[in-house]
Design goal:
The chain is α+β, with helices and mostly antiparallel strands. The chain contains 1 helix and 9 strands. The chain has a single domain, classed as PCu(A)C copper chaperone (Immunoglobulin-like, Sandwich), CATH 2.60.40.1890. Helix content is about 15%, strand content about 45%. Bound molecules: copper (II) ion.
Length: about 140
């Protein structure tokens, strides 16, 4: 009898655990967008992604209502087909390294503007984050 209850409790625990791991999400920090020069229709966005899930998560694409097209770019401006984040891993899109490239930006950005970025994960989940436009010229940061 006791053994049977132990089994039931064990299964409940397993269910609970898998429920928690499935409800996990990617933590997004420091989402920002480099203020583009006047008349430019491209802009680079940066952020830190932290995978707090117990399993791998794959970022397939990013979109934005502000841009005709958004691409993941590596430091050489080449398209990254996806970003694989292993369990517990974090990744930083940052100046002079991999970044999120907005192309065909149709609206005028100023410092402090919030630009929504929509992250599309391979498992079908979608996450929206507001990237804040920053004038990075004073900080001496390049692309
Ligand atoms: Cu780029």
């Amino acid at each position: 009898m006791v053994v049977r209850w132990m089994k039931v409790l064990g299964m409940l625990g397993l269910l609970l655990w898998s429920g928690i791991s499935q409800a996990c999400d990617i933590e997004i920090k420091d989402a920002r967008l480099r203020l583009p020069p006047p008349m430019a229709d491209t802009a680079a966005a940066y952020m830190v992604l932290q995978n707090g899930c117990a399993h791998e998560r794959v970022l397939r694409s990013v979109s934005s209502p502000w841009a005709k097209m958004v691409m993941l770019h590596d430091a050489a401006m080449h398209k990254m087909p996806k970003l694989v984040l292993k369990a517990g891993q974090s990744f930083a899109f940052q100046p002079r390294e991999a970044h999120i490239m907005l192309m065909g930006v149709g609206r005028v950005m100023t410092a402090g503007t919030h630009v929504p970025l929509v992250l599309h994960w391979q498992d079908g989940r979608v996450q929206t984050v507001d990237a804040v436009v920053q004038d990075m010229r004073q900080m001496g940061q390049g692309e």
